[in-house]
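Chain A, query sequence.
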Amino acid sequence: MKVLKFLDQYLEVILISILFSIMIVSTFSQIILRALFNDSISWSEELTRYCFILMVFFGISYAVKLNKHIKIDLIMNILNDKKKKILEIFSTIIFMLFTLYLTFYGAGVAQKMFSLGQTSPALHIPVGFLYSIIPLGLGLTTIRLLQKLFGDFKSFRLDK
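Chain A, predicted structure.
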């Protein structure tokens, strides 16, 4: 139970920190090798790109967890508390339906890429793994949206 609580609290932070560290080391190594030895690593730019893409998708999930995703407050500012909560629940449901759709669509695309057997140019990673970033990141976002939705329903019921 402690492990699940720890993962619930820190999963995205840990993953983003690891990915960002890999990006820094890879890019710094490339700069040093080019500047001092007039040589380069053929795969560092590709690795940095894929780490950045992963960071973006985990960042979406983390923003949902912290309730820091982009939203327009104009309508929220003119509504009373009860209507604000209803609108927030509605927008969370719409967002969750969108992430569910993209998760399943992305899984289909990833599966198709696995079946084609294509690999990335420098790292020679199966492209299916790279496309799996979409359902992985958005699946985690969907879980965070479900958590938010349960919390919103709970607070809505308590306020009645």
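Residues 62 and 68 are 8 Å apart (CA to CA). The mean pLDDT is 92.
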